[in-house]
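Workshop exercise sheet. Pairs work together: one partner reads the sequence aloud, the other fills in the structure field after running the prediction. Swap roles for the next sheet.
Pair: D.N. / O.F.
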Amino acid sequence: FSLRRLSAEEVRDSLLAVSGQLDPTPGGPVLKVKNRGYLFDHTSIDLTDYTSNRRSIYLPVIRNNVCDLFQLLDFPDPAIPTGDRAASTIAPQALLMMNSDFVMQSADQLALRVQAESGTTAERLATLSRQLYAREATPEEIESNSQLLAELEQSLEPIEPDARIRSQQAWSALCQTLLAAN
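Structure field:
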């Protein structure tokens, strides 16, 4: 899972898939507005909605309002023909992975998914590595991620009395970190 090798659509779909939110339903409409209701200008109300959990191929491409996630991840300008996609790695892309509600929600769902697995923390971390990176975690990665989880839970203790919620928040932070890692 690396931003450098994935298109904007693949990043979005990968986040939905690893977090267990991807709706695999093929075909059919995604737009929830009347015909041409997604058209707007500076004087009208924008009704474009990109909150679908369907694959990116089903999302509308509105020329003057491309999905924010796509804009930051080198989605080609839909107003002009493009023979080759540009590829960049810029600071706003990293900021998107740190601050995006979509990424945080995906991390929360991934954390819930991993915590639902039976087994030890090390086994869960190994599962997480297989899900995100399609490889086994090294002993060093498991150790450092276990340590990070413990530190996160400890730092949350003064502000969150419920141990279960602290654990969920720590796992969510770890998942977001791993999703954003190159």
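Discussion prompt: The chain has a mean pLDDT of 83. What would you look at next?
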